[in-house]
Amino acid sequence: MSLGLYLHIPYCFSKCRYCDFYSAPGQRGVPRAYVDALLRELSRFAPDAPLRPDTLYFGGGTPSLLTPAQAERLIRAADPVPGAEITLEANPETVTEESRLADGIAAQKSIFGDHIDAMRSAAPANQKNIQDYLSAYCFGDFCTRKFLTIPERELLTFAVLSAQGGCEPQVKAHVGGNAAVGNGKETLLAALTLCMPYIGFPRTLNALGCINAVLPEAEG
Question: Which among 72, 130, 137, 207 would be 20 to 30 A from 105, CA to CA?
């Protein structure tokens, strides 16, 4: 059994014509009182919940109006299982130069889990800027956009890296990332099959080797 948890953040800059959800337009942030109310609700029901959530979805409104500290408090209170899918709808206008690094790290961790913290901590001092650029650009600037889900973006990333060639370590990392967000081996094989006429057999076979290295066939 699985448990999905939806947290509604109704605040936004302006009301979109297509939006049927309750929202409070004209806001430039999420009031502390609202976050505190959500935290009280989570603490009220969490002790009696039979399962911990394996999916946590922030919807709205514009959830990216949450500060990184507010989002972290809510995630901790929700107490998702390790490797849970955590999705936060975002308006690119709300991912600022000041927040893109924190938002990017949050997006990375929603895919790869706490391994991201260990990777960043282990980076030598003269290489930490590269980790920051990776988190802020690849994840903060892109994974926080609307319309595509995190699993869809991960599948596209796998396809692009496979087509690029010479990126086998990154392909393996994103095979693992795809598996973590629910794109299993059969999904990856189907995507690679569709790419094959366009990327050729050498890159297809290299990507296939990456899939098998990370997700080996079950014995028997």
Answer: 207
| CA distance readout (Å), 166 to 139, 159, 172, 180 | 21, 13, 12, 23
Task: Reply yes or no on whether the pLDDT at 179 is more than 80.
Answer: yes
CB-based contact 154:188 (threshold 8 Å)? no
Q: In what order do the strands lie in the sheet with 55-60?
A: 4-9, 55-60, 85-88
Give the tens place of pLDDT for each residue, 112-139: 887 888 888 888 999 999 989 888 887 8
- Among 141, 149, 146, 164, smallest CA distance to 111 is for 149
Q: Provide the whole-model pTM.
A: 0.55
Q: Are 61 and 24 in contact (CB under 8 A)?
A: yes
The residue with tokens 């959800």 is 21
Contacts of 13 (CB under 8 A, 6+ apart): 25, 26, 27, 28, 62, 91, 93, 94
Chain segment 44-91, per-residue pLDDT in tens: 877 677 788 888 899 888 888 888 788 888 988 988 888 788 888 777
Secondary structure E strands in 61-126: 85-88
